[in-house]
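FAQ
Q: What does a multi-component entry look like?
A: The components come first, one per line:
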Amino acid sequence: MHRFDADTADLMRAVFDATRLRLGFDQVPLDGPATPVELAARVGQTITPGGLGGRRALELFDEVLARACISADHPRNLAFIPAAPTRSSVMFDLLVGASSIYGGSWMEGAGAVHAENEALRWLADLAGLPAAAGGVFVPGGTVGNLSALVAARGAARARLLAEGRPLPSRWRFICGDEAHSSLYQAAAVLDAEIVPIPTGADGRLTGPLLAAALAGFAREDASVREGASIREDASAVRGLRPDGHDHGDDGGGGYGDDGGGGHGDGEAGRDAAALGVFAVVATAGTTQFGVVDDIRGIVDVAREHRLWVHADGAYGLAALAAPSARVRFDGIADVDSFIVDPHKWLFAPFDACALLYRDPAQGLAAHGPQRADYLEVLDSHTNWNPSDYAIGLSRRARGLPFWFSLATHGTQAYADAIEATLATTRAAAAQITARPELELVREPELSVVVFRRRGWTDTDYQQWSSGLLRAGFAFVPPTRVAGEAVARFAIVNPRTTPDDIGAILSTML
Ligand SMILES: Cc1ncc(COP(=O)(O)O)c(C=O)c1O
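Then the predicted structure of the entire assembly, as tokens:
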């Protein structure tokens, strides 16, 4: 199994041939799902005491299993957020896999970590983060958001403790009501409350909406404390505090003290952490519509309230590389952390999310180093160990395929490719507007187009979508907006053309 012999050489050729074939397709087949029963019938028992042999296992993968996986990189796969990895990134991914690189620590993976950090630096520079910024590639936006929020809560907690102030009984973070579902997962893991703010018709969380939410929390808090102090006064008449202890001086800086760093509504005393709010998440490109929150306004309000701003740009922040879209991200230079997934719109293979901290010390404080005698040698004080900056210890150097592609093609090619998808999106919107049977639900901001086919029911959308997939033509599942089924294109593939869009729209007559 571990020796390189004639069988290994034969299998290597077969695997490389299959890879060469897949990489060489001008247009990959779309393929489509199968049921567990169908797959079991077609592949039979694959895990056996004696093994099937590499050739047979590869044949099963090639002929059955791979064909039951929809190609995320097909130009007419416009579902969810698809993928469009460059060929160079995919080729290099093979080498990364073959190189057995441990990417968790500098000691073990210095060369890989250096290269990953170069790619992270490019992203940090696009955003305008300071030179000290840094981070790590994690498996996806979900883990990236969670890791950033863990750091944000850690920072809020540490600050309150350092200032000798009480911790809130419950932590919460704020986002817009169109923010990604992974934030709800993060809230569950953190055992914190997520506060989705209603954003209105444009779906955008703004500075004023954030300010109003914080003012509401402050009012709630003040009335709770007022109620407590009325109860306290009543108890004082009886000579006891409500908790049964003798009435005594609270000492400065207690929960009920608004002066100097308290949490009242007064300008000097604003502190979201004291209200239990440890972060606001600005979405830089919502999944459903591609809407970019008012990052500048959010940052400005957050600064007044000493509040951590995390930008979820898993999908949308790729467009920082496109000059025509940059203006939408005003304020991004001032966030505390952000994520962007190279496996979405930055042309890398699954899976990679870049997590960046403005001050990596905050990430380190929350995530590293893990306490274990056997890990001390990794020396997190002098070394940049990626696993110190997010959840998880062992890690694939998953930023390397992205780095290789960037290094190979140069950043201008990225700008051009993203601009191409934006141009296709504009063409799609124009085609939809020109067709009387179709109607845009909202004007696209980035590369997501949501539109309705007038007169269609849920069943019409479902039948249309299933038909396209069955025919191997396109993958365009419907979505839902305010309960209504509608169609949605997410365009991240520079090889998706206006003609592809036109051909799909023509199937909706
Ligand atoms: C805005 C946004 N945030 C977070 C995520 C979660 O990212 P991942 O699927 O990489 O975990 C997504 C996924 O589509 C997303 O669009």
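Q: Is there any commentary attached?
A: Sometimes. For this entry: Residues 81, 140-142, 145, 180, 182, 283, 287, 312, 314-315, 341, 353 surround pyridoxal-5'-phosphate (CB under 6 Å).
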